[in-house]
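Now for one record.
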Amino acid sequence: MCALVADWLIGNRWMLATAESCTGGLIAAACTDLAGSSAWFERGFVTYSNASKTELLGVDAALIQQHGAVSQSVVCAMTLGALAHSRAQVALAVTGVAGPAGGTLEKPVGTVWFGWVWPGHDVCCEKRCFQGDRRSVRDATVQHALTALVARTDHAQGHLETWMPGPILDMRPLDGPAACFCLIGA
């Protein structure tokens, strides 16, 4: 999947920045495992704590307190913060509950919010709920973050069904910033 992301970014002369919470840098690691990634991967932020989301990405602490770190508002702010605090043109962000602890009735273990943005598009956010242990949730998060980025690009025309499993059920504006949109998947 990283090769497809790389091709799209290089073809557009864009760089990618990541902002990761529950994956702890695994997305950045997957990207930089590909030789030559310095041509398209600009930087990765590991913002596991709420304080790091605020300090490194500029996420408003009040937003985290109001909505929780695992929320559409926070992932949207993380995505925009990754752009603002890097030289990248494309950003993706993830925040979630990988488990085994930390889940609630409202946000059970496996709940992950994703955010993506690239030139000419508003921030796209999506919530997924993955099953399995901590490693499975984190691995699924990495795979989905990259797969969905490619699937949402013009590069994916005609190949969407191959690259992005599962239907998109609903697209609606977020309750937060006007630049954010939410895609809720099955």
The mean pLDDT is 86. The first strand starts at residue 16 and ends at 20. Residues 2-185 form a domain with the Maf protein fold (CATH 3.90.950.20).
